[in-house]
Design brief:
The chain is of the alpha/beta class. The chain has five helices and nine strands, in the order ββαααββββββααβ. Strand 7 and strand 8 form a beta hairpin.
Length: 254
């Protein structure tokens, strides 16, 4: 079951769209929102991640966009438009339409609708700010993807077998280019130790947030800092938590 919540209760016409896939109930972040928001309880989606996300972002049935959950590095060199994983480069996304309508556009969480070119990323699809990961999955604590998750040797031939890359990317409103979320990624030893969203720094030797806790902070910060009095620039936010996706790393606290 896919649980989607679209809310206009922040201040019309501001819109909050949360997408939670493959779960029987919405997770912690959406409980309060769902209590006062319209819920799509007759919503049907594709059987796995990327095609259903491509449909949501493009407004098209997966058969017309992408029905493959392929490795992000797969491409057809003879097709520079649709020869990549995710949404073809010439398709319009929901954020591009909302931005053209005057909305401030934000994306937080799992992307998985393309990353091969700047046209495929959240910024290329119309999101003015974003924080998330591009691939199918990453580690909840060190945000890495290895060769079993689609971003190792098959996508990056220069990487040694078993090597990992950090899959966490950010785009801010301040004009800085979209790029690696330097300073937000966890790199301290044993970062995965602990059951809380934010393990005690004293026990780990540094800052070690759980990825969905990092995303939750980002969502709340965007809402808190949005200018509600500027009705000419309402907010559109797409929030897609990592939770319920592999790997199975859920703190007991949650």
């Amino acid at each position: 079951m896919h649980c989607d919540v679209m809310s206009t209760a922040l201040l019309p016409p501001s819109t909050f769209l949360a997408r939670v896939s493959h779960c029987k109930a919405c997770p912690y972040q959406t409980h309060d929102i769902a209590s006062w928001s319209p819920q799509l309880d007759r919503h049907y989606a594709f059987k796995y991640c990327s095609p259903s996300r491509c449909a949501l972002q493009s407004g098209r049935h997966p058969i017309h966009v992408n029905v493959m959950n392929t490795d992000p590095g797969n491409h057809n060199k003879d097709d520079p438009v649709s020869g990549f994983a995710g949404i073809p480069r010439n398709m319009t996304g929901i954020a591009q339409v909302m931005k053209a309508g005057g909305y401030r556009t934000h994306m937080v969480g799992k992307w998985d609708v393309g990353m091969a070119t700047p046209d495929h990323t959240p910024h290329g699809r119309g999101y003015e700010s974003s924080l998330g990961y591009f691939s199918h999955e990453n580690d909840y604590y060190n945000f890495t993807v290895d060769d079993n998750g689609g971003a190792g040797p098959k996508s990056c031939p220069s990487y040694a077998e078993g090597a990992s890359i950090v899959d966490l990317w950010v785009k801010e409103f301040d004009g800085t280019p979209e790029g690696p979320a330097i300073g937000l990624n966890n790199s301290i030893p044993k970062c995965f130790v602990g059951n809380d969203a934010f393990p005690a720094a004293s026990s780990l030797g540094g800052y070690c947030p759980y990825e969905d806790a990092l995303f939750e902070e980002r969502v709340l910060s965007i809402i808190d800092n949005h200018n509600l009095t500027d009705t000419d620039r309402p907010m559109f936010m797409f929030y897609s938590p990592h939770i319920v996706h592999e790997p199975l790393q859920i703190p007991e606290y949650w």
